[in-house]
Structure formats: structure tokens, C-alpha cells
Amino acid sequence: MVESLVTFRPPVGGFFLIILSCLWTITFHCDCLLILCIYVEQCSFVEHRNYKIVYRRYASLFFLVGVDNEENELAILEFIHLLVETMDRHFGNVCELDVMFHLEKAHFMLEEMVMNGCIVETSKANILSPIQLMDKAS
């Protein structure tokens, strides 16, 4: 099974995260565009110039993170795994519909975990406590 990744230059000093469903096609227009076809069973890292794309597939969702070359790929894979575990704890077996219909909660989780391109929070309880408080208030 061949999947397509579209990579482009991430913001300086940070990384970007894209969550894709394997059913959707997303095209980016950018001055640095590279389309790569890779097999899912191969490596989870793609390098281009001085950037890397680290990705992981969970069921029907692809999680892609773009980083600088100096970043540790295994640490980013752990970050993706932590994000999926956090979403699983909140939504219960996260799928693309959870992300689509509760996009603000997914963004809030990312904002709790990442600040200025650096991972600042790794505790699932600390990440989810503000979201649970907002759910109780509404």
C-alpha cells in the first residue's frame, strides 16, 4: 500500500503537526514542495534539505510532525504517541470524526503540550484537566 506525504518548510524554530485521515487528500501550495511516495511499512522519518517529517499511523489517522534536522526523531514519535494516548483518554478510541467535530479540543490539547515549538507538558492528567473543567462548566 503506497501513501503520499506532502512536505513543506516548517516555521523557523518550531514544528508543525498535521493530522490526516487516510480517506482525505490534502494539497499544500508552498515555495518548497516535495511529494514523496513511501511504503507504510518503511521508516517513519523523511528528510528533505534541513528538515524532517516524522509520522505515525494510528488506525485511519496519520500524525505528521515537521521538525529541524537537529530534533530527535524518537522523541517526536513518543510525542505523537502521547498525543494519541491523551486523545484516546478523552474521546475514547479516537477517530477522525472526534478530531473533526471536536477540533477545538484537539487544538487545546496541542496548545497545552507545545509552546513556541517546544514540548512543555507530558502529563496526560495535566493536559486534560482544563478540558475537563470546561466540559463541566458547559
From TrEMBL:
Keyword set includes Transmembrane helix: yes
Location in the cell: Endomembrane system
InterPro entries documented for this protein: AP_complex_ssu, AP_mu_sigma_su, Longin-like_dom_sf
Any Pfam family hit: Clat_adaptor_s
Keyword Ubl conjugation assigned: no
Residues annotated as transmembrane: 12-40
AP complex mu/sigma subunit domain ranges (all copies): 41-137
Origin: domain of life: Eukaryota
GO biological process, one term: protein transport
Keyword list, A-Z: Membrane, Protein transport, Transmembrane, Transmembrane helix, Transport
Example of a GO cellular component annotation carried by this entry: cytoplasm
Family designation: Belongs to the adaptor complexes small subunit family.
UniProt name for this protein: AP-4 complex subunit sigma
Organism: Olea europaea subsp. europaea
